[in-house]
Amino acid sequence: MRSSHISVSLIIIIVLLYLIIAVLSADKYSRNDFPTGFVFGSGTTAYQVEGAANEDGRTPSVWDTFAHSGYTNGANGDVAVDQYHKYKEDVKLMAEMGLDAYRFSISWSRLIPGIQPHVTLTNTDFPQALEDEKDFTVYADACFREFGDRVSHWITINEANIFAVGGYDQGIVPPRHCSSPFGINCTKGNSQSEPYIAVHNMLLAHASAAKLYKKKYQEKQNGSIGISIYTFGAIPYTNSTQDEMAAQRMNDFYIGWIASPLVFGDYPDTMKKNVGSRLPTFTDQESELVRGSFDFLGVIHYTTLYVQDNPGSLELKQRDFNIDAAATIMNLDDPDLKRQPKLSSYWSSHFLKGGSLSPHHFIQLKNNFSATSNARFRQ
């Protein structure tokens, strides 16, 4: 049995493939396929689309530093799709597409004074000068004050879980912290502990901003505030109890890592058991601050993956987030799916058709563990 720990790089590739699938499959669905009240929209992040990197007083973010340091083969967001200058055209296109909402992030390093705006306060592009500072609540206050009369939904932090793993474990995105043997050519960081510290601080930052909004702005502006979580459907590789428990652990590590503190004020029991002293603890005051600090929970679901139990990983002396989960995301060679090349959009689309989660798939949180309900793979 071959095992390997989770690769954020693999997940990013899969995400891109699913964007392709979404385009190819667009003519198969209509608004009638979605329930009443479902908000149908699209989303971007500032650095990926704005451009205008040096205009109107913008200062470098950690992504500017990362992209111009030779880690992206010359690619950068200096121009991107130039939404900073073409936002009116883009909004017009969104209206023509029939979108209800547009989730975008405000560039923290450029705070500037129809479609329902869903605003993300930060999507990993925080200012380089503030990487080690504690000014998130001050920044959030400025956003609430300047834009709150026009924003109905605030998302404090987007995909904190995947940002922590990519930025503080594997070192493949800013601020590029990692340590051997988990990252590649990193000059600083500790993959065994920093991802957990990063998420802990992001949860406290979120809760602080949410508390401020609810106390100072919500009644007057009549908006709501939440946080979004990166998720994928974790399906047991076999029907064995071990693989079912592995899928549960994967849910705890990816979903419960963020959601459980928000609902219960503490991390999932499986994480506390596997991670041990490397997992930060909440004081009673912090637990009270974080618990219930949201009006809504954004669930970003990209794909569905097979998960297999890997108990031997817990015997390793050096462990990072991926190994702590004691579960392996399987890279299958299924001859019935004509997988050429591997991870192709053709294979992914057939995987979704033949093996997707139930249409009633949703997140459950109960007794301090997380689960994706009705997660049954159709053979």
TrEMBL record:
Domain of life: Eukaryota
SUPFAM superfamilies: (Trans)glycosidases
InterPro entries in the record: GH, GH_1_N_CS, Glyco_hydro_1
Matching Pfam families: Glyco_hydro_1
Sequence intervals crossing the membrane: 6-26
Keyword check for Oxidoreductase: no
Keywords, comma-separated and alphabetical: Hydrolase, Membrane, Transmembrane, Transmembrane helix
GO biological process: carbohydrate metabolic process
GO molecular function: beta-glucosidase activity
Family: Belongs to the glycosyl hydrolase 1 family.
Protein name: Glycoside hydrolase, family 1
Protein's organism: Corchorus olitorius
